[in-house]
TrEMBL record:
Keyword Lyase assigned: no
Listed transmembrane segments: 21-42, 82-101, 108-131, 156-181, 202-224, 260-283
Xref: PANTHER family: INNER MEMBRANE ABC TRANSPORTER PERMEASE PROTEIN YDCU-RELATED (PTHR42929:SF1), INNER MEMBRANE ABC TRANSPORTER PERMEASE PROTEIN YDCU-RELATED-RELATED (PTHR42929)
Keywords: Cell membrane, Membrane, Transmembrane, Transmembrane helix, Transport
Similarity section: Belongs to the binding-protein-dependent transport system permease family. CysTW subfamily.
Localization (cell): Cell membrane
Domain ABC transmembrane type-1: 72-279
Protein name: ABC transporter permease
Domain of life: Bacteria
InterPro entries found in the cross-reference section: MetI-like, MetI-like_sf
Membrane topology designation: Multi-pass membrane protein
Length: 287
């Protein structure tokens, strides 16, 4: 009887449902990653028709050139700054959605939050280019309102890159924080208030600790892709938008040096995994 129950609850019945997903992951993720890992150790691409051999020179190029290390650190700093701004903007928005708004008002604001997911990334970036450039929407609006003339030209600057990336990724922070904030029992907040805690103390001692899993999950979802981003830095940053991700893109698209680009990509992957592993004890303690 017990064995039949275990058999019913085992993985066997779930295999038909799991197989398509894991097969797709194997084909779409692990197979390309394996090919890129092999390319990173090659002197040349096998499809070029030239002779090739295995080498470590592409990985050695990262450590021998201070430029790659500098750009990697700049990308990590960019990821941290964008994640911080997303938390500052996204957490209050998620709190209002989960604990303040109700009914149609919540639905309307929620729709505005997820609206960026419905548009192409390039459309969003070029829209910001129209807003931030000299004579753009922001410049024209401020000059129409203010009694004195201002010249707002943020294009091809570091703040423009930050603005574009925050706009693209802040919905992830809002959604993850919204899920954890909505799950908080109202009785806990009422108990804190009945014990004399102010609104600020309740937020700091009750709400924030309980919402921390969503805040950290959103931070991971934002930090990882931002470190390797290249579209926003390329279009909105211009020459100041040269980061590690743009260099990798150049190796694949402009220089056609796929082995070096693959090696730089796996170094970035290793650095991100190291950062996440160092943060793992904090994540486990929060959960």
């Amino acid at each position: 009887m017990a064995s039949s129950i275990r058999g019913r609850g085992g993985i066997g019945p779930a295999l038909p449902l799991l197989t398509p997903a894991y097969l797709w992951l194997a084909v779409a993720i692990f197979l390309p990653l394996s090919a890129m890992a092999l390319f990173s150790f090659m002197t040349d691409l096998p499809m070029s028709g030239r002779d090739w051999s295995l080498t470590l020179e592409h990985y050695a190029a990262f450590f021998s050139s201070g430029l790659y290390v500098t750009l990697l650190w700049a990308s990590v700093r960019l990821g941290l700054e964008v994640t911080l701004w997303c938390a500052v903007i996204g957490f209050p928005a998620a709190y209002v959605l989960a604990r303040v708004l109700k009914g149609r008002a919540r639905e309307a604001i929620f729709l505005l939050v997820i609206l960026p997911f419905w548009s192409n990334g390039l459309v969003r970036i070029f829209s910001w280019a129209m807003v931030l450039r000299e004579g753009g929407l922001l410049d024209t609006t401020l000059n129409a309102i203010l009694p004195f003339r201002v010249n707002i030209d943020l294009m091809y600057s570091y703040p423009a890159v930050i603005i574009g990336l925050v706009h693209s990724y802040v919905p992830y922070m809002v959604l993850t924080c919204y899920l954890t904030l909505q799950a908080i029992d109202n009785a806990l907040i009422e108990a804190a208030r009945s014990l004399g805690a102010s609104r600020l103390q309740t937020l700091r001692r009750v709400v924030l600790p309980l919402a921390m899993p969503g805040l950290l999950a959103g931070s991971v979802l934002i930090f990882v892709p931002v470190v390797g981003s290249f579209m926003e830095p390329r279009i909105l940053g211009g020459r100041t938008g040269t980061f590690y991700g743009t260099v990798i893109e150049d190796q694949f698209v402009a220089v056609f040096n796929w082995p070096l680009g693959a090696a730089l990509s796996f170094i970035l992957l290793a650095v991100v995994l190291v950062i996440l592993s160092l943060a793992a004890p904090i994540l486990r303690r929060v959960r």
